[in-house]
Amino acid sequence: MEVRGVLFEWDAAKAEINVAKHGLSFLEAANAVADYHIHAEAEALRNGEARRLRFVDFHGRVITVIFVLRDHGMRLISVRHARRSEKENYERVRLAKDKSI
After folding, report:
1. Residues of the chain with pLDDT > 70: what percent?
2. Are 81 and 24 in contact (CB under 8 A)?
3. 3.30.565.10, 3.40.630.30, 3.10.450.530, 1.10.760.10: CATH of 2-100
4. CB environment 62-101: b (16+ within 10 A), e (fewer)
5. pTM for this structure?
6. Among 36, 81, 90, 101, fewest CB within 10 Å belongs to which?
7. Which residues pair with 95 in a beta bridge?
């Protein structure tokens, strides 16, 4: 699925599980990632695969979108409400960006 020029893919069954578990859909995550103005990122290695965590504002709350980069776009793994440390990371980046404007 293409959202604002970025190609996203995900497993449909995993997407349903994610909504039940975290109350956030992969479509919401795709829109938040494609529309971000300010974000912070981290990287984690899982099962030999480099997974990226992007922390973005979503309707006034910071969410964590976990994904892997593919040649053709992004494969979404999970989306959830950000943990305290992730929110703090996002806020540091946001404040630094605000100061540079």
Report:
1. 99
2. yes
3. 3.10.450.530
4. bbbbbbeeeeebbbbbbbbebeeebbebbeeebeeeeeee
5. 0.87
6. 101
7. none
**pLDDT tens digit sequence for 19-68:** 999 999 999 999 988 877 777 888 888 888 889 999 999 999 999 999 99
Give 8-44 as a DSSP string. EE--HHHHHHHHHHHS--HHHHHHHHHT-SSEEEEEE
**Could you tell me the maximum CA-CA distance found in the chain, to the nearest angstrom?**
42
**Are 81 and 22 within 8 A, CB to CB?**
yes
